[in-house]
């Protein structure tokens, strides 16, 4: 896993974001916001019932992380 994604995970823990609300470099068990390193690009999407919604692809990991944070932090169900 990229160092930037490890740091993102630590950031979200410190912010008190529900762990069930997101997945980093994997898919969530049921549904949630995802950021995934597809090697040639970074994907950010919402995953529900086996389908990727609002999928965006980024070539820059920092741009992907910024977008992911904005999406996740705007979700009222993600916060404690």
Describe it:
The protein has 80 residues and is an alpha+beta fold. The chain has one domain. The protein contains 2 helices and 4 strands, in the order αββββα. Strands 1-2-3-4 form a 4-stranded mixed β-sheet, covered by helices on one side. The longest helix is centred in the first third of the chain and has 13 residues. The termini are far apart. The relative contact order is 0.21.
What characteristics describe this protein?
single chain; 80 residues; alpha+beta; four-stranded mixed β-sheet; 4 strands
Domain count: 1
Low-confidence stretches: none
Number of strands: 4
Range of strand content? 25-35%
Brief summary:
With 80 residues, the chain is an alpha+beta fold. It is built from two helices and four strands; from the N terminus they run αββββα.
Question: Helices, strands, pairings?
Answer:
Layout: H1 3-15, E1 22-24, E2 31-37, E3 42-48, E4 51-58, H2 61-73
Parallel strand pairs: 1-2
Antiparallel strand pairs: 2-3, 3-4
